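Narrative summary of target 7.
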Amino acid sequence: MALSTGSNKIKTAVFISGAGSNLKNLIKFSNLKKSPISIDLIISDNLKADGLNYGKVFKIKRKIFNFKNKNKTEEKVISELKKDKINLICLAGFMKVLSKNFIKKFKGKILNIHPSLLPKYKGLNTHQRAIENNEKFSGCTVHYVNSKLDSGKIILQKKVIIKKNETQKSLAKKILTQEHKLYPKAVLKIFSL
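Modeled conformation, tokenized:
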């Protein structure tokens, strides 16, 4: 993926379901001169997602979709993304699995951040599973999204040490700190290729 000529940044949508700390971090990153992206749209499946407040604070358009009827909702999301000329999607704690059809329409343009060292611990409860299996390390991964859950090509990973007395909460906090550094680095990496 190459940057468009001129100072045009790549129009990006961030999909969230919760607190939105990665969203906030990506917004701050997008405001830097060296950033190849601009965040133009926030999409959430959760009306009460705290992360939606960042849309207010940073004056970014927000859209909330109910995913009860997945196909219909995804059609609405796609038309919204097209209307806003979105060229990159960053999933940041988005708790819905996108359909193959959706992913095909944005092939190679959807990134996700996952709180484990993929291919280990795909899906949910990653911290608990890593601790229960006495792993020495965990971490986070930024990867392209494909039609298999947490299986797309890995862009970047960051390792953290799991200490003997580690809890899910302490590990989650440690990994989240690394996620905030890793996501912008991964975005820079793919656009400098």
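The chain has six helices and seven strands.
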